[in-house]
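Thread: "does anyone have the structure for this chain?"

Original post by V.I.:
We have the sequence but no experimental structure in hand. Need at least a predicted one for the grant figures.
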Amino acid sequence: MLLIFTSQSALADSYPANVLGKLTNGVANVTFGVVEIPKTIFITSQSQGPAYGATAGILMGMMQMVGRTLNGVFDVATFIVPTKPLVTPVYIWNDFCTETSYSSDLQLR
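Reply from O.Q.:
Generated one for you, tokens below.
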């Protein structure tokens, strides 16, 4: 019984699972990076008001879109080396009300 649980926990943190996770994350960020625009407009409108969200929120959203999309391209290009995600939240739909942030700390999974 102990061997069954040990093998499952080892498989959950295995190299193939980490590589697949990074590839999936990269493809999702490339595909849905454009959703950063309405997300940032929404967050900015909630905190600064609708006029600011409709103007500066669009520009900030475009910058966030470029950041998330480029991060996705990086993840797809380097998925062989499983690293922790540099974008928080990892997927854009995880926490739609949280502003996206980036890390420069590249760590292995």
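V.I.: this helps a lot. The helical segments are 2-12, 15-32, 36-48, 50-77.
O.Q.: and The radius of gyration is 17 Å.
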